[in-house]
Amino acid sequence: MKLNPNMSTRLLPTLFGFVAVFATVSSALSQSPYQSSSDFAKYAMKLRESALLKIEPQVFIPTTGRSVVFGRYPWKMNIVTTVFWVGESAAGNNPVPNFKSSWDASWESNYGGFDNPNPAARRNYIPVAFIPRQNPFYFALPYNDVTHGNTKPEAYQVIPWFKDTFERPGKSVCQNRWIAIRGHNGKVCYAQWADCGPFRTDHWEYVFGKETPKWNINGGAGLDVSPAVRDYLGFGTKDVTDWKFVEARDVPPGPWSRYGDNNDFVINARKSTERMAKESDDAPRVITR
Known about the structure:
By secondary structure, the protein is α+β, with helices and mostly antiparallel strands. The protein contains eight helices and ten strands.
């Protein structure tokens, strides 16, 4: 078949274009560390992504100390907050020693020792002398749902999670519950309920209701926090904070999730490890000769 001169003229640029593309691909293949066309395609995609990373802004989202706290419970605002610790002796504005708690007669022993509040004797939110066997991020509120081994009558009505967690009379449904604590700088810490106070154990109208803390010799303090909480939020012996109850599932990982037999994070991690070990034991064995 004889080609039309006009057609051949139109085809020539196209042919030259194919040749140029082939030469470019061949050159790129020869310069890249990849030998096949499929590998080269992956190589080219990586180059493209690398170029995009250079021009697109990078956004980093903080995962700890965040100010957004999930859950249905309201904030208690502007609460005078003081510091207490496991093993604290009775003195001055602390009339009751903290060798035991409202729920644990051997608190100091079960915790692992004296939770020294001296910053020089602490590192990474725990005492340097030992690793706590309970969560070092703990707090106290002025209500106890148990008295003389029995559950208080009002507990059934005033504690929001009572029906979901009640096991038997005399067993607290408040012990080890989580709260979020927000400092004056907006930083948020999480801790578990370990004792009752300051000064009172009956003020459910404040803890679960809308009242404010009763006046006391610590300036109307309505929340006691551990040295770990103090250090994380960055205040001294007294400050003003906001706090709210949170469910364990809404607590993000942080320094409060590392230690303690009573810590939901530690408990769940152990369960996961035990489950994996059991699955591994139950798996069929392959015997090779």
